[in-house]
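Hey, resending since the last one bounced:
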Amino acid sequence: MHRRHALSLLASGPAAALALPAWAQSDRRLVLGQSCALSGPAAQLGLQMNRGARIYFDRLNAQGGVNGRTIELKSLDDGYEPDRCKANTETLIRDDVFALFGYVGTPTSLAALPLVNAARIPFIGPFTGAEALREPFSRYVFHVRASYYDETALIVKQLTSLGLTRIAVFRQNDSYGQAGLDGVVRALKAQKLEPAAIGLVERNSVDVAAAVGAIVAKQPHAVVQIGAYKGCAAFIRAARKAGYGGTFYNVSFVGTQALADELGKDGLGVVVSQVMPFPFSTTTPIAREYREAVQQAGGDATANYSSMEGYMAAKIFTEGLRRAGSATRDGLIAGLETLQRFDAGGYQVSYSARDHQGSSFVDLSMLTGDGKVRR
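The structure tokens again:
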């Protein structure tokens, strides 16, 4: 998506209407608030998450909305920086949006969490698998995706089943990177192993020289990467240039298509864990529905995992609202909590009054080296 076109879409809507409570602006409209990266090195994560959600909501609105109401998504750019996300969240809560939706990232979502709990506002479908967003339990936070514990457990299981036991971790130096590292350490400990090496990169940075030095010297069998696409791509290239011949595994937040685009032919063989069904085929009902919606949206919309996660989060939110009947925040929470073993088209989501995890589905994919992804 061209950034200028994306930002013009996100800024649309009469500013004067914001003088009224957003979810009371009209009996026929509900406004959701989103803070995510729409610019900077992690922009594709926010742009695609937003794009997928808008594809779903645009289609829903064209069919009359839900319970007679249309859904509007008001999105603010935080550049994947916690302080900006906190300020955006304060603005959205002050504007009295109905719920917060589709935030992108662990450090940003954690910056918003105290405000969410204080305002008692639903926080739906954040693009993060961090345990700190799951424990301690919050009545207001609903996850659609599996956790980083789930993802790293599958990665470590896959590697060790192949006899690859010297496993290093390249991680972002923040709460996201720590969450991923915690998951790897937890999975390794269960097999009486520990990381062979750990290398750090700062958020929104591609300065990977120190991490390459720390990890390549240990010659691990594989490197598990906990970062965003630009930093991870920079590490892969630099590590290979330094003579490293092992395997690279990433968790889903990396942004699979963005990583594939960034690496090009250098992406061949890079593995990424996934928390959404494979979006590039029609093997599941949700994939068929999603691809049809992307095609109908036209323009520069393309199928990818990050966009599909936005689409899925929008679908789950809508089902909760449909079951709520009345458009109140407590009603939405109650409606979502009735989703027990809910089949979203080959992707199952379950909530209860004490469990808002949603899904534990994890799969593995591989980059092909020509910008594509296969299972």
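Residues 1-25 have pLDDT under 50 and may be disordered.

Sorry for the duplicate.
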